[in-house]
Amino acid sequence: MLPFHFYLKLGFEHISNLAGYDHIMFLVALCAVYTVGQWRHVLILVTAFTIGHSVTLSLATFDVLTIPSEIIKFLIPVTIFITAINNVFSAPPDVRSPKIRRNYFMALFFGFIHGMDFSNYFKALIGEFGSIFQPLLAFNLGIELGQLLVVLGIFLLAYLALTLLKFKPREWNLFISGAAAGMSLLSMIENKFW
User: Fold this and answer.
1) Are 28 and 158 in contact (CB under 8 A)?
2) Angstrom distance (rounded) from CA 108 to CA 143
């Protein structure tokens, strides 16, 4: 069996690798409506995404769930687009609002889709080396660490934009969500499977 740190590093690189910008773009869209003061809610969102990612990765590894990769490659930018459009047409989330709960559900559900993206490679590694528990735990911890690093970067940029450049939160949301929607739309066109 490969060592724990191998899978930890693999999970971290899976999220933080700029070549696989789709996961980063999803996190950017997910965080666009939140302020630094709402970091706890973002932490829960990111964890919900990791849980969804983990469940699907497990199901795909055991061949319980199989979706062709060309469909997944199309659905990932769809999740980014829906998240970005949701940001544009929704009021900013209040701590007590149902929107926060809806965002948690979206992050969890979209994590299911994103988890399928890496499943074939992960399944090949596990098939070679046996048990799934330790590799899956290490991989998901790596994903969570990578996501937290990305979110920290997003919040740093948001803080600079809102304080130094004097963006209003709504303007920042529209700018970031619009960019995410545009990039994801191009990716959907590029990855269409029909």
Assistant:
1) no
2) 14
Instruction: Please give the mean pLDDT across all residues of the chain.
Output: 86
φ, ψ of residue 8 in degrees (nearest 5): -60, -50
49 within 8 A of 111, measured Cβ to Cβ: yes
Dihedral sign (CA 160, 164, 170, 173): negative
53 has a pLDDT exceeding 80: yes
Distance between CA atoms of residues 30 and 42, nearest Å: 8
pTM here is: 0.89
If one counts every other C-beta atom within 10 angstroms of the C-beta of residue 163, the result is 10
The torsion angles phi and psi of 170, rounded to 5 degrees, stand at: -65, -40
**Structural domain spans, the chain:** 4-190
